[in-house]
Design a protein that fits this description.
- This protein has about 450 residues and is of the alpha/beta class.
- It has 2 domains: about 220 residues, Carbamate kinase; about 140 residues, VC0802-like (2-Layer Sandwich), CATH 3.30.2130.10.
- Helices cover about 40% and strands about 20% of the residues.
- It is built from 15 helices and 18 strands.
- Strands 3-4-2-1-7-10-11-9 form an 8-stranded mixed β-sheet, with helices on both faces. A 6-stranded antiparallel β-sheet has the order 13-14-12-15-17-16. Strands 5-6 form a two-stranded antiparallel sheet.
- Helix 1 packs across helix 3 and helix 2 packs antiparallel against helix 3.
- The relative contact order is 0.10.
- It binds aspartic acid.
- Aspartic acid (ASP) binds next to helix 8.
Length: about 450
């Protein structure tokens, strides 16, 4: 059995839904299909909640009508039928009552927020299953709120795998006349049956939960990009598509190109070693990228990834020499200021680290300044070569640095996972450095079995 997830852009309007349903129905395998809200709808629902908080009732109602209209247009263009149409109106009327009630108290609790946000997936999954069901009578709707059981941490609910697995499997055996189960991603419910959500971008996670619970043979994540590429095509126009990466490589790359998918979100599938495919619903014939435990091509670099606008913090203190607890004190400052540290290198008397979110930088400088001298460098960039090959193949690091001849490298770090060799350069040198590295590793002498040229 197979689990497929289609993101917001794959269901954003009638032609996208038709394309998606074609993909779904072209397979004869039994499958669970997890869909996101139509592109843009979750953000619209967030803005409805914001408007309620700011007592802008009129704006909230206008946005609600936008939600209603987009779905009614979809139903009409798909000819999805009256049941779907009535459902849209029923859910939107209910949302209107919720908005008005919350406006009276002028407050949106996390629980109410989840109720509002769930509307996107509740609607998309129902409409798509009505439409697909009108083409093929083996399709049915499975309401994720009745099977994905979570705790009550609204907005970031934790799934209870035991109960969820039981619920999914028993629902599917009750519905054993059907082969295609269409479910909304992102949503679930707690033990009191209150609606919960799994965090933004949570549909990938839902799909991985379903995959784990039914012991799926594979998980397909359908999106609007070709898969994982050797670099960002906006900078490297001849970036290549990778046919395969390992879970570890995908995890490293997600930090840079989180748009494709975040490993945290597919963790349940990774845990059970279920192969994950990233595919493009706009080009279903494309090869896509397979993510699995041990990628067959372990001895090479897979990608040159980067991130701009990084702040480097150099911390030095002669009290550090031979002392213990110094690093703990440094990291305490970042904990206190809720700032995530990305790269770290350390010597006996100094530490360099990078942060991306510099919202609390002033507080961080102040707190570190209590016990160390600090230098701050803004507008830097991280460039990483990612690949399991870094661990086992000699000569990669030397090629990496030779290719960068003439580029001023400010910091070097090799992650503990040993699949990531990272450097920091000035933002102004980023493009040149990435181009040089891409050329070195992907524009001469590449293994064609692993890479696909796009266009
Ligand atoms: N619709 C939700 C969001 O935009 C979940 C998802 O699409 O993954 O975050």
């Amino acid at each position: 059995m197979l689990v497929r997830k289609f993101g917001g852009t794959s269901v954003k309007d009638a032609s996208a839904v038709k394309r998606t349903v074609d993909i779904v129905l072209s397979s004869s395998e039994k499958q669970i299909v997890v869909v996101s809200a139509l592109a843009g709808i979750t953000n619209l629902l967030v803005s409805i909640s914001d408007s309620i908080r700011q007592h802008q009732l009129e704006f909230a109602i206008t946005s609600l009508e936008e939600v209603r209209n987009r779905h009614i247009t979809l139903v009409n263009e798909l000819n999805a039928g009256d049941v779907a149409l009535n459902f849209v109106n029923q859910i939107c009327d209910e949302l209107q009552r919720i908005i008005i009630a919350l406006d009276v108290i002028g407050e949106v609790s996390a629980k109410s927020f989840d109720k509002i946000l769930s509307v996107g997936e509740v609607l998309s999954s129902f409409i798509i299953s009505e439409y697909a069901g009108s083409i093929n009578n083996k399709v049915c709707h499975l309401d994720s709120r009745s099977v994905i059981k979570t705790d009550s941490s609204f907005m970031e609910a934790e799934v209870d795998f035991e109960i969820t697995s039981e619920k999914i499997n028993s629902s599917m055996s009750n519905l054993n006349n059907y082969d295609v189960f269409i479910c909304g991603g992102f949503i679930g419910s707690d033990k009191f049956d209150s609606t919960t959500t799994l965090g933004r971008g949570g549909s990938d996670y839902s799909a991985a939960v379903y995959a784990k619970c039914i012991k799926a043979s594979k998980l397909e994540i359908w999106t609007d990009v070709d898969g994982i590429l050797t670099s960002d095509p906006r900078l490297i126009s001849n970036a290549l598509l990778l046919k395969e990466v390992s879970y570890k490589e995908a995890a490293e790359l997600a930090y840079f190109g989180a748009k494709v998918l975040h490993p945290k979100t597919i963790f349940p599938a990774i845990q059970d070693e279920i192969p994950v495919y990233v595919l493009n619903s706009y080009k279903p014939e494309g090869a896509g990228t397979l993510i699995r435990k041990d990628s067959e091509f372990g001895n090479i670099i897979k990608a040159i990834a980067f991130r701009k606008n990084i702040t480097v913090i150099n911390i030095s203190s002669n009290r550090m020499l031979g002392a213990y607890g110094f690093l703990a004190k440094v990291f305490d400052v970042f904990l206190k200021n809720e700032t995530s540290v990305d790269l770290v290198t350390t010597s006996e008397v100094s530490i360099s680290l990078t942060i991306e979110n510099d919202k609390n930088l002033q507080e961080i400088i102040h707190d570190l300044g209590e016990f160390a001298s600090i230098e701050i460098y803004r507008k830097r960039a991280i460039i990483s070569a990612v690949g399991e090959g870094i661990r086992d193949t000699s000569g990669i690091a030397s090629r990496f640095f030779r290719a960068l001849d003439g580029v001023n490298i400010l910091m070097i770090s090799m992650g503990a996972s040993e699949v990531n060799l990272s450097i920091i350069v000035d933002d102004s040198e980023l493009n040149k450095a990435v181009e040089l590295l891409h050329k070195e590793f992907f524009e001469t002498d590449i293994e064609n079995r692993l890479f696909v040229k796009l266009n």
